[in-house]
């Protein structure tokens, strides 16, 4: 079956950049945090090649912010995550798993520390605001929590730095990876971070105010003409090659961070106060029994992966594939799957049950990019 | 612009009935609780006429359940809602607004009381599980909370009772409105409630177990052939005519239940323990300053309403329209909007700013169905 139609409604929120996205000829969307997220402009493969060669502007307004501010903001942040936040400074971004009391992942956002008592959590696809609010209410913390009018716009690709310097000045060049600085555009300051959901380099601009959206979109498009700038979006092929996980696809609240290969973002011993700490102490000590792996699936291009594909070995289920797509650059089907420890070593051969039939697949030592 | 394409992925979960939905020729979807919800089969208008004349089977698996069980389940339920639950008996369904500590609506589910210490909350489009879990964690309540493998299948339309009796036996006829009974199909019991998201009468079957989905779907289709049964879905025209609100479209967490015209489901004085009670006591006493209204928009058929349309009177903003569509039966554009008290009386004339231009609209005394 080809892609079905999406029925528009107010509930699937438009973004400050939707007008630009439509003018650029968006072909398809997904829905993310109750908001439209473009998925294809020219074609997934054309967008992919272009992302690796030039520069793209992405409407990722759907990365909504949960803002925490007030005396208990720092305490609440540490309650949310097993990552030790004591060393986090204003101006830093931290990728941080958020877990519930069982250690199950509720989101895998990037947190932005604006001040000692003020944070943004730039969320993946789940209503994290509800969890944060519920915890704050139950613990009667002194903190204000809301979703501000902040809409991320990503600039990604090898020419991103050049384009950003043209629009925001050379200060954009000085921003280090996972750091941010407030930069000015048309008289308003926006948080600009060196980050993004690709491995091609780039920035995320936390655009402050819906009205600032289209002027900035247009300025980037105008300034980047000779750089071959184009509207783009998170690219399925590039993200699987790069091992960028997608919450809801590759992991759910059933999974611990350790299963997702995010153990390096957990400091379970020292993250005192984290709600899921007790549950994760044992996992951290013994290790998970299944974990995310890169898989190369043999044969011609796989169909669209819109459900878990079982992974077996000698007739026994040993995992599942959650994302898979043909990679032109690596000339194989690249995939992300959860695999049991009996079969997760590099070179292990398993069977992936695609809708087109069973295919051999090889566990990789690392992702491709 | 016509409807764009939707890119499938695992994150937009398929349902136990997806196979049947596809075989029935689904034309478009929306995304609801991270799950596919069909929106069109033949056309919105054909589906609408058929719903009012025959019987339809709807895949509403996206109405996910939040299950609460344990000694504190009842206490936690009352914390969630300003509706007084003391009179709720096992076997009853309650429509209940869920509010945060500011009285803002987080969801407007139907709660199902399975036993004194066990409930399902059949949710609208927000991750209510996160709020319920956060509150339970913060208050250290003795309650288990999860999303069980329960997928509602609705049977709606004037011939629904006849079809249900053929598949579940005459016991289905005895179920009163907003009551439920456990009924058997192929050796398994399913909760069957007289309820549903239309005003045409019908049932919701809380299908227990993914594997039970397609056998039941097929049995309903087979048994209803001479009743002209067809796959259907919540219908935009019918729901607006009927004044069935949609969370995320017609109301958000900015709105109190009273603004949404749901004051009759609030017993703010007696709902002791409700988290939002303090905030709502004043609203309940003084009344809201804006409220949901039915609006008839003049002129030819309005375009797709995918964002708030401002409502003005003499140049001043007095509200917004959130859902609007042409009604063949009532020969007008029917709409749902939030209107300030200065202009909310029946017969008041306001101006609606549609993308096609400004149109006069008349505030109605009631919805159409």
UniProtKB/TrEMBL annotation, chains A, B:
InterPro entries: GcvT/YgfZ/DmdA, GcvT/YgfZ_C, GcvT_C, GCVT_N, TrmE/GcvT-like. Its EC number is 2.1.1.-. Signal peptide: none annotated. One of its GO terms (biological process) is methylation. Residues 293-364 form the Aminomethyltransferase C-terminal domain. Substrate binds at residue 204. Keywords: Methyltransferase, Transferase. GO terms for molecular function: methyltransferase activity. Residues 22-269 form the GCVT N-terminal domain. The keyword Methyltransferase applies. It is an enzyme of class 2 (transferase). This is Dimethyl sulfoniopropionate demethylase. It comes from Roseovarius indicus. The lineage of its organism: Bacteria, Pseudomonadati, Pseudomonadota, Alphaproteobacteria, Rhodobacterales.
């Amino acid at each position: 079956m080809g892609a079905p139609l999406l029925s528009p409604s107010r509930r699937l929120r438009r973004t400050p950049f939707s007008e630009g996205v439509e003018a650029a000829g968006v072909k398809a969307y997904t829905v993310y945090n109750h908001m439209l997220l473009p998925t294809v402009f020219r074609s997934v493969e054309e967008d992919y090649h272009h992302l690796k060669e030039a520069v793209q502007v992405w409407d990722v307004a759907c990365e909504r912010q949960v803002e925490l501010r007030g005396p208990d903001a720092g305490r609440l942040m540490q309650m949310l995550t097993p990552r030790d936040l004591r060393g986090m400074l204003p101006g830093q971004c931290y990728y941080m798993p958020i877990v519930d009391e069982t250690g199950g992942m509720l989101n895998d956002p990037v947190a932005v520390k604006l001040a000692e008592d003020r944070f943004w959590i730039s969320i993946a696809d789940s209503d994290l605001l509800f969890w944060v609010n519920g915890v704050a209410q139950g613990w009667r913390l002194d903190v204000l929590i809301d979703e501000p009018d902040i809409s991320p716009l990503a600039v990604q690709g090898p020419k991103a730095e050049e384009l950003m310097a043209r629009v925001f000045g050379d200060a954009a060049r000085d921003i280090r990876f996972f750091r941010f600085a407030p930069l000015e555009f048309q008289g308003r300051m926006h948080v600009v971070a060196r980050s993004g959901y690709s491995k091609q380099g780039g920035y995320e601009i936390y655009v402050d105010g819906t009205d600032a959206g289209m002027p900035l979109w247009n300025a980037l498009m105008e300034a980047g003409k000779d750089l071959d700038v184009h509207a783009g979006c998170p690219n399925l092929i590039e993200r699987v090659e790069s091992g960028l996980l997608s919450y809801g696809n590759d992991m759910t609240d059933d999974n611990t961070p350790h299963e997702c290969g995010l153990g390096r973002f957990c400091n379970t011993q020292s993250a005192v106060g984290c709600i899921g700490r007790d549950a994760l102490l044992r996992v951290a000590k013994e290790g998970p029994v299944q974990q995310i792996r890169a898989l190369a699936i043999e044969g011609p291009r796989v169909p669209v992966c819109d459900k878990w594909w079982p992974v077996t070995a000698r007739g026994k289920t040993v995992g599942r594939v959650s994302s898979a797509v043909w990679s032109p650059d690596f000339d194989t089907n690249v995939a992300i799957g959860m695999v049991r420890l009996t079969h997760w070593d590099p070179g292990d051969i398993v069977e992936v049950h695609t809708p087109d039939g069973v295919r051999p697949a090889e566990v990789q030592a690392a992702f491709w990019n």
